[in-house]
Amino acid sequence: MARRQNGHGPKYLRVSEALRDDIAAGRFPVGEYLPSERALCERFGVTRIVVRGAIAKLEEQGIVEREAGRGTRVLRAPAAAVTIELFFVKWLSPFADPILSELCTGIATTARQCGYTLTLNYIQDSHSVEAFVENLESSNASGMIVVGEAQWYAPVIGAIESRFPTVLVGTPLGSLRADVVEPDYEGAMAMAVEHLKECGRRRLLLLAGAFDSNEGRDERNIASFREAAKRCGYAARDAVVHDGRDRGLKGFDLPADLLKKRKPPVGVVATAASYARNVLKLARDARLRVPEDVAILSTQDSLWLTGTEPPLTAVDVTGRAAGVRAVEKLKMRFESPALPRRIERAPIRLVARGSCGEPARTSGDGAQ
Predict the structure, then answer these.
(1) Helix and strand totals (H; E) in the chain
(2) 185-316+350-364 is a CATH 2.10.109.10 domain
(3) Which residue has the higher pLDDT, 348 or 26?
(4) Which of 41, 42, 77, 253 has the fewest CB atoms below 10 angstroms from its CB?
């Protein structure tokens, strides 16, 4: 098992943490003033810019308040130190993963804003998952956020959530107690179909069938695609599903003749970033123009989609807003442990990048 823990970070954070510890220990009582900036510079051997950054961090947390002409007054003692463990189970590391990097950034940023320490447990295989669970008793974590491959976390989620306040970001397989931020596949599919309709696509093609069957993601995507297409006025013959499982295909493979029988202009809804990239290549090989002949939209966003030509439009279902919400839910659990378990859909947003023929823009529930 690979275990990583963030260091103390930049100088201003180290100074902020030291002052926070001093306030918690009563060295600077509530209502009193911190030493002057000059005195703090001498104590820590840093510049005024560093000290001001440290004080700004404490002010952001509501621990101190700057008073013009008087100094920095202590408003309250900080709460006891809180450590969150991010239990990330996937083949690629969280901040390098082009699909979940924004989610993890949202978790890290919000944890820092809440004054929490974030520890990362990045696990790449099922054997390491089992070893991690065996060591749970020695963990000093206050709570856990679980992210990654459902087939790996499902067998052990019960052991995790019985030990810690837990938030699961993903499909709630095997979870009985964890709060859940669940991907809104239905909402994403509806947004995708409606967008392609607005872009003038008279025929639609859904690419599905590559995900673990226990998760039920493909079934949800297919059902919601058909429902959304019907609601938008598409006839059944004009909203076709390509299910790779029916053809015995593995992973995100696509048949070479997939687009040859589709009369342009057609809109393709890809249920994964890899599908979107692969169908773009097929369109190029078939000498079809994107977006004029084939519009492509993925219901899974990824940094992989920004470097294509044209960049590929996506509906973001597990982006930064989902990470923010995961930490917020864990904070609510810390403050009110008796709250009943809650499952909610993650915010979604449309990120238009040109592969459907529209100007680049961002819109939707998760838009910043």
Answers:
(1) 11, 16
(2) no
(3) 348
(4) 42
